[in-house]
Amino acid sequence: MGGQRIATTRDGVAFAVTGSGPPLVYVNGWLGHLELSWAIPAERAFYEALADGRTLIRYDRPGLGLSAGANVDDAEALRDVIEAAGLTRFDLMGASAGAAVAAAWAAAEPGTVSRLVLYGGWPYGPDVAAPGIREHVLGLVREHWGLASDLLTDVFAPDADRATRTVFTRYQRESADAATAATMLRAAYELDVRDALPRITAPTLVVQRERDRAVPLDQGRRLSDGIEGARLEVLPGRSHLPYIGDVPPLTAVIRRFLGLPARHRGAAPTLTARQREVAALIADGCTNREIGARLGITERSAEAHVERIRYRMDFRSRAQIAAWFIASSFGD
Fold this sequence. Notes:
Layout (H helix, E strand, L loop, with lengths): L4 E4 L5 E6 L3 E5 L6 H6 L1 H11 L3 E5 L14 H11 L5 E6 L1 H12 L4 E7 L11 H13 L1 H12 L5 H14 L2 H12 L14 E6 L7 H9 L5 E5 L11 H11 L15 H11 L4 H8 L3 H15 L4 H10 L5
Parallel strand pairs: 3-4, 3-5, 5-6, 6-7, 7-8
Antiparallel strand pairs: 1-2, 2-4
Keywords: Hydrolase
GO molecular function: hydrolase activity
Protein name: Alpha/beta fold hydrolase
């Protein structure tokens, strides 16, 4: 399938391209980081499932991750990525708050969207949670971002194993500072695409987990009811993040809707025992010189091990190696 190729639009929006075939543009919802998300085995596997038979294009929203310096709004960022990738017609998927961005695009630019997939979305933000709850969470994010990221991990990913929860909590904080996270969350609570839904003409699949702890099922129903001909698929589960919980049924229903065959998953990339030792020391914050001293090898040999890990895992940074090691160490 190939690795993840990262590029940047002229306005500073970072986007990643994976796989080959007709294009599928993916609009993320909550905080994101193209490099760190690729290092989390569960999240990477989800994107690879979408990219099997498609060219998957996803991006960091303005102000987040590798797009921290982008000075555009969400709608402009999506347009930038589509133009930078040279796309004229494509499948479009939006997850969580990204569902509203995708829906708004499909309504405004109907000639560009072949099929539309909306996962875990909502048409009107104020209905997602009571006002008191919204203000409490926003205040917590602004004043105690560390504690808030733990709380949001509980809400978004209750089925994640301990290691993945640890990495996701860190990755939220590395994707955005407290002020940016609060701004993003407030924007999610203020979303309103109710007027756009009737203008969507692309075949549309709305997918919602039955007991999603972040977005009640009735929000998915309202999203589906607002789009003529949309099909609603309700799947078991309570995790809001699409790559946590029982993921194969979710990827299977999306692939069927996109006209793709059932996927036969290949083996995930692995490391040798020595490479795992090196990865563990990187996760501990060791330099190449310190790795060499700990393992009784030269600094140059340590550097070579690091480069082989990066090549084998399709990583660009030591931070990705550290995140991958922590996320894959549950039960070790």
